[in-house]
Design goal:
Its cofactor is Mn(2+); Mg(2+). This protein is α+β, with helices and mostly antiparallel strands. The protein is built from 5 helices and 11 strands, in the order βααββββαββββαββα.
């Protein structure tokens, strides 16, 4: 693993009102074909990651998944994140968004994200205003993750399902959307170097798909 580097693309901070306004303008609920089509590879902008996803698509079945990006509409907005249970078979103990695989009972990726948020942390749908889908995100494990950006009204009470997560916590949106906090690390995949993001916050180490999706959110809403 190489030493972390900070990204160089920067954008001026925006207000919470502007964040939600831009999100509503720039996002929609069109489901990308690549969610289930192995021949459509999500692009990452990193040559090593793009090559890795091509290899994974040939060797593993596509695993459609959905997550919720719950932006809590405090005066200073926050993002609600979870810490996965340590006994899970994949990504144990990692920081993630509420979400999981899309089941046959789910009417849409949005429905899957809302269902998982309620199952994992007890976040009720009446507090959630879905805004739209972010870009499709691929992982080394064959997951195709479709994130839903949502505005969440404060005042909710959470009930943690410890079979899936051990904690839920909020991180200031301003911290996560500050490129000075976006570290780039690299690791090897079958002889190729690929990069990944990390956004350490206090004792929490936010990295991998979660940090990568947050970076995509920054690029779509703050840079576009």
């Amino acid at each position: 693993m190489n030493e972390p580097m900070l990204t160089k693309m920067e954008a001026a901070p925006i207000s919470s009102t502007e964040f939600f306004a831009r999100s509503k303008t720039r996002l929609n609920f069109d489901v990308p074909r690549g969610l289930v089509d192995p021949n459509i590879i999500p692009k990452t902008g990193d040559a090593g990651n793009d090559r890795m996803l091509e290899i994974v698509a040939r060797e593993q079945p596509v695993r459609p998944a959905a997550v919720l990006i719950p932006v809590v509409d405090h005066r200073e907005p926050t993002v609600l994140l979870t810490q996965r249970s340590p006994h899970l078979s994949s990504h144990a103990g990692q920081i993630s968004f509420p979400g999981g695989k899309i089941d046959a009972i789910d009417a849409s990726p949005l429905d899957a994200a809302l269902r998982e948020a309620e199952e994992e942390v007890g976040l009720k749908r009446e507090f959630i205003e879905p805004i739209g889908y972010l870009d499709l995100y691929g992982t080394a494990f064959g997951f195709r993750i479709l994130p839903t950006v949502a505005r969440v009204k404060p005042g909710f009470e959470l009930t943690i399902n410890e079979g899936e997560v051990v904690d839920a916590f909020e991180v200031p949106l301003a911290f996560l959307m500050n490129p000075e906090n976006h570290q780039i690390h690299s690791k090897e995949f079958r002889g190729m170097e690929r990069s990944y993001y990390a956004m350490p916050f206090a004792e929490r180490y936010i990295w991998g798909a979660t940090a990568g999706i947050l970076r995509v959110l920054y690029e779509r809403i703050y840079l576009a």
